[in-house]
Write a structure and sequence with these properties.
The strands form two sheets. The chain has a four-stranded antiparallel beta sheet with strand order 1-2-6-5, with no helix packed on it. Strands 4-3-7-8 form a four-stranded antiparallel beta sheet, with no helix packed on it. It is built from no helices and eight strands. The termini are far apart. By secondary structure, it is mostly beta strands. It has a single domain, classed as Immunoglobulin-like, CATH 2.60.40.
Length: 110
């Protein structure tokens, strides 16, 4: 099974999130994340210094394929492109790794 991740962007508000949805690339079906663990790493594009090394939260209904990362102060304090790596370990032990470029503009949650 080949997977694709969709980055939904920031959800504006007091507690900004990076929100993602995981789908099967061929069928378009959402991936059931029941029992999965999801890690996230980020760094500024062109700089290998790790900014975030954390974990994501599953949606209350993990069958939706949705998960998110709670953005903290300082996570995205540099304007420009940040590389985001998401590592998903499904309940059966199968691993998926997704890479995204996230553009951070002036005034984004820092």
């Amino acid at each position: 099974m080949s997977t694709t991740g969709l980055w939904d962007g920031f959800i504006e508000g007091e507690e900004p999130l990076l929100s993602f949805r995981l789908k099967d690339r061929q069928s378009g079906d959402l991936i059931d994340l029941t029992g999965a663990t999801i890690g996230i790493k980020t760094w500024f594009r062109g700089d290998q210094s790790l900014i975030i090394n954390g974990s994501c939260d599953l949606d209350p209904d993990p069958t939706t394929g949705q998960f998110s990362y709670q953005v903290s102060t300082g996570d995205f304090d540099r304007v420009g492109e940040h590389q985001v790596e998401v590592k998903i370990t499904l309940s059966g032990g199968e691993n998926r790794k997704l890479l995204f470029l996230v553009p951070i503009k002036a005034g984004a949650p820092a």
